[in-house]
């Protein structure tokens, strides 16, 4: 009963959340799974299949030439050079032990509402932090250019 109630609340929560935003963030495993192109180099019978990649938090970010490149939807870690015998969650844990998704150590179907909210919060905070850093850099450059121009003319 509790599991059914949590599933219902999760569904309602994500209906209220703009699904385009959730999809762009690869917040749900199904979105990550959909990102993998048909030319992912490994078969479903191999360890490094698209289901295992999505379960480990990865979405496809490669192209025709780099068809084995994937990134974590939470920490942003990009990995390529995958081998058919790689176990995606183990690789994620090895290369990004600081990742909240890795630290939680759960499959999406085991997430509570609080877990989803922690993940969502971490993603949003990271995006905001990156935007602030980008704007600070631009402002610093603009101020330096203005100062240089001002002192050059005086």
Task: Describe this protein with a few key phrases.
about 150 residues; mainly alpha; Inhibitor Of Apoptosis Protein (2mihbC-IAP-1), Chain A
Overview of the structural elements:
By secondary structure, the protein is mainly α. The protein has a single domain (2-126), classed as Inhibitor Of Apoptosis Protein (2mihbC-IAP-1), Chain A. 57% of the residues lie in helices and 5% in strands. The chain has seven helices and three strands, in the order H-H-H-H-E-E-E-H-H-H.
Write the SSE topology.
Elements: H1 2-16, H2 19-24, H3 29-35, H4 50-55, E1 58-60, E2 70-72, E3 78-79, H5 88-95, H6 100-104, H7 113-153
Antiparallel strand pairs: 1-2, 2-3
- The total of helices stands at 7
> Biggest sheet, strands in spatial order?
1-2-3
State Rg: 20 Å
> End-to-end distance, in Å?
76 Å
Find the count of extended strands (DSSP E, 2+ residues). Answer: 3
Task: Give the CATH class.
Answer: Mainly Alpha
Query: Main sheet, how many strands, which sense, barrel?
Result: 3 strands, antiparallel
Taken in chain order, the helices and strands follow as: HHHHEEEHHH
> What is the arithmetic mean of pLDDT?
86
CATH topology: Inhibitor Of Apoptosis Protein (2mihbC-IAP-1), Chain A
Oligomer description: single chain
Gross morphology is elongated
